[in-house]
Amino acid sequence: MTPKATETTETTAAAPPPPIKPAPESEPLCARIENFSFFYSNGMQAIKNVDMPILDRKVTAIIGPSGCGKSTLLRSLNRMHDLYPGNRYEGRVILEQDGENLIGPEADPVVVRLRVGMVFQKPNPFPKSIFENVAAGLRVRGIKNRAVIEEAVETALKRAAIWDEVKDKLHGSANDLSGGQQQRLCIARALAPNPEILLLDEPTSALDPIATAKVEDLVQELAETVTVVIVTHNMQQAARISHRTAFMYLGELIEFGETSQIFTSPKHPSTESYITGRYG
Ligand SMILES: Nc1ncnc2c1ncn2[C@@H]1O[C@H](COP(=O)(O)OP(=O)(O)OP(=O)(O)O)[C@@H](O)[C@H]1O
């Protein structure tokens, strides 16, 4: 018997459900990412229409499989992509404090990088003294008074929980520190200009478990005074230290919510597949 058209046995793969838009937040925001897209100079669209709140003085983790756009999104927040010609931003990243659009044409990328500090995967201290590493951002801010710089360097090193280890060798080379100490020094360097947001791009992936635990403790402490956004491949880390988690896939923000909700009852099937280790 010839099957009728309606009885065909062929199946087509169901399209994945659309991303879930973040729910309105009741807690104070530090910034809002609105309808944000990013295009690399070769025309590749790495971020697609992302809307995401960034909670004030909380830790937001960005997770997702390799190549989903985590680092691209993070680097957009402090205009790192401006260092390469031809890259393009669309949309807005608004700082709540004064309404500045960080990716707008009027925003000076150098000033944005003081308001939004960044620490990378591999510790990258300048080949200078410990003191000069931390003072660097203050000098960019135009601060020249020695006493002011000394006080700010001490405060930043204390905030980064490394003061006790370096206070007697501030003029020694940063390169003589251990990897974990170098990473905390880089955090101090980012903190010295007193940024509103601290971006951390897989800050512990080059560190051993003890140095990792120190940085994780530090991040939680820091969130009392500065907003933190962290990219991590380590889901236990995201679950341990963040208040909100953003799951990205193929350049889209698929799901955003309280970290405990994302890890225990994700709403989107792609989030569930990722956190249960089925891909990525
Ligand atoms: N300079 C570049 N020019 C063009 N495309 C790029 C560039 N850098 C990254 N991409 C592409 O943009 C997409 C997002 O990359 P991105 O590094 O942001 O992903 P990721 O989620 O951080 O990955 P990983 O976890 O592996 O670090 C990828 O498809 C990547 O190939």
From TrEMBL:
GO biological process: phosphate ion transmembrane transport
A GO term, aspect molecular function: ATP hydrolysis activity
CDD domains xrefs: ABC_PstB_phosphate_transporter
Compositionally biased tracts (Low complexity): 1-14
Keywords assigned: ATP-binding, Nucleotide-binding, Phosphate transport, Transport
GO cellular component terms given for this protein: membrane
PROSITE patterns the UniProt entry points to: ABC_TRANSPORTER_1, ABC_TRANSPORTER_2
Residue intervals of the ABC transporter domain: 31-275
InterPro entries, alphabetized: AAA+_ATPase (IPR003593), ABC_transporter-like_ATP-bd (IPR003439), ABC_transporter-like_CS (IPR017871), P-loop_NTPase (IPR027417), PstB-like (IPR005670)
Location of region: Disordered: 1-26
SUPFAM superfamilies hit by this protein: P-loop containing nucleoside triphosphate hydrolases
Name assigned to this protein: Phosphate ABC transporter ATP-binding protein
Species name: Pseudorhodobacter turbinis
Gene name linked to the record: pstB
